[in-house]
């Protein structure tokens, strides 16, 4: 059976060049970067080269301005950013502003902080997933210690007006963190131009290995480490550095930076053709997220009268792999908080599918994907009592 | 120039079999274990197999009793254990007991907790590095919420009477965490027989890859996650699992378990012969740590009249790689807190060297190592004013 992956948001394979760059650091240059002798040298250099490459991907050319802290994941970077600034205790106040459609590694820690007495303000988004700059401005007060709003949403792909949002917070000297996990490598990012104080990234979203994330921290921002111990990563993240994974992240960042435009155009072209084909052949489809301001690889649709989880399972049997939203919660079988936030009615939110294109997505597969999705959707639709009710009403209306 | 690594405590190369086990998970089985479709299946299975292997290494045969939480490092596991239990807030009290010779990922977070108002009791150790069970008993009171004492010390190799120590805490229903990073794979460990509530491990200490640590947590122990977000690792550690590294850790644990006795005997034999040779040829040597109760790979010596850092640098130029203590602090150029704790006088503590044998250490290299160390020690000794003072006094005493 031919297998087609349309879930590259959950995981990307490691690029062959990336793996090649990593390999020597498992067996040959296996030293500890903290070692004072020769065996530490090559790993130490490689770490700094990777740091420079990851920096370049987010617009940092000057090494002096590069304060990239390597972590094991975007989730860890998000926790370091928020808990780090909160527990550093340098700022007075207890209000933290975020958006309703952040990743769970933001929202769940904020829920914990709320229990500890922090005031968490979740800004709503409009029906396309956009945060309103005006609402951010209104939410800020002199108790506000942090704003955390993502660059773009992994589920519905909506890209926020980050530069504008940052300017509002910065005017009041409130630090701004942004989760760029879904965006980095796919849209141009420049931390200086955006003005963000902290930015989260992950290697496994851009054909790098799992196990390497990063937090950019602007000079002057004080954090308390999440993992305390040794003085690795400028004292902000203890533990032996995962050299091979970081080297892989660096190489993946280099490739992503070099081929950014080409890659984006490639996945957007596939995505647009797939969208066109699906909307032409399958009735009762709805697009979720912003029609233009969206990540090039992202297509999120709701299939009316059809439950997303059932669709996912049937497509899985046909060798087509899609997701019903964030992979971090797919085992939890909850409806998506992102679709709830954009005001998607429950029956559509339940039927949402994230189709995430990747570098190996092939346009020649689109007719096959469309045919199978159409078949499965049609089958499931016929099993839906709501659909039969809809047909009956349509019939009645026609008869009137 | 022939290179000889005597610093396997800082890093071990990844075993060829381990790397082989990992490779398919970078490019072929690259899926996200949380995915509901087929691409998540193989990674998910592999995670559970690795969990079983790591469990087996610490004596867990029944899957139901296996609550292994994978982390990115031993430092993270240590932080999860201590901060996790403290912030879960299930226990009343503010006293935490530890030893003076723990790893910095224990001591530095306890220093932070001390600033927050916790009472931290650092038990002293005797001149061989042993904690006294009697002193632990005296230190416990009804305010004690946790004891954290390592299985064995990475710097001086001393193995604690953990079973006895655990029994004392358990009698008073106080949870016991133990850092087994330096010990796992080198001495038999059985969490049930030991009675510990939490145990820290790391893959890169046993020929597994960097980037994979683990915390064993006994059923009934409640922790708050350090990294909040998705529901991975039983809700105790959010973020996409580093599947290749965890698979590597599992294979390394399997190999370590299978060959434990042979490996231990092999490194102990090398270590003992090296020790004999060095003590025969080099004057003014002192052994640090317990003469028998010590890890099989560990040799820690002080060279009187000679500064360890200078010795390390000279040996490095000769292609012999040793460390002056913990690699997490080697860049900090501080004297070792472990040697201070065993009452080593500053002039000896400054001259301490950790010689950590590994599976590739060869007995035929011992004469060469001895010769070079003897030469370098002799050269440095002659540059020491203290040595000349010592010679003069010896001369005077002889003349009397």
Number of structural units classed as domains of chain A: 2
CATH class of the largest domain in chain A: Alpha Beta
Most extensive chain contact? Answer: A-B, 76 and 75 residues
Q: Please report which band the strand proportion of chain A falls in: under 5%, 5-15%, 15-25%, 25-35%, 35-45% or over 45%.
A: 5-15%
- The number of helical elements of chain A comes to 15
Radius of gyration of chain A: 22 Å
Taking pLDDT < 50 over at least 5 consecutive residues as the criterion, the unreliable ranges of chain A are 328-332
How far apart the termini of chain A lie comes to 48 Å
Give the ordered list of helices and strands of chain A. EHHHEHEHEHEHEHEEHHEEHEHHEHH
Kindly report the average pLDDT value of chain A: 94
Write the CATH fold name of the largest domain in chain A: Aspartate Aminotransferase, domain 2
Largest sheet of chain A: 7 strands, mixed
